Amino acid sequence: MKQRFYQTNSGQQPVQRYLDRLPVEEAAELCSVIAELARYGPRVSTVDVRHIRNKLWEVRVGQHRLFYTVAQDELTILLHAYKKQTKRAPKCEVDVALRRMAVVQRVQR
Description:
The chain is α+β, with helices and mostly antiparallel strands. It has one domain: YaeB-like fold (2-Layer Sandwich), CATH 3.30.2310. Helices cover 39% and strands 30% of the residues. It contains 3 helices and 5 strands. Strand 4 and strand 5 form a beta hairpin. The longest helix has 18 residues. The two termini are 20 Å apart.
């Protein structure tokens, strides 16, 4: 399965930037999960994956959350990542992922 990071109009890759700012051990764990997503797709069974809404999915790795979508041609796009510090996912974090997913879907058409 192909995979890429969401990229803003200015060329930023927010998920990659998030990974770059993590301690090495935490970044390595998330990168391992990202590699499994690339290998097995959204049906990966070795991590905690949850459907959020429409084509938006969430991967849970410790306190870290990674949102992604599967676009045309089995392309996984990593949209947004954050560190969860409350019991429920903050609406603003989900909204960021949904906005980025909407951009990806418009480009795919």
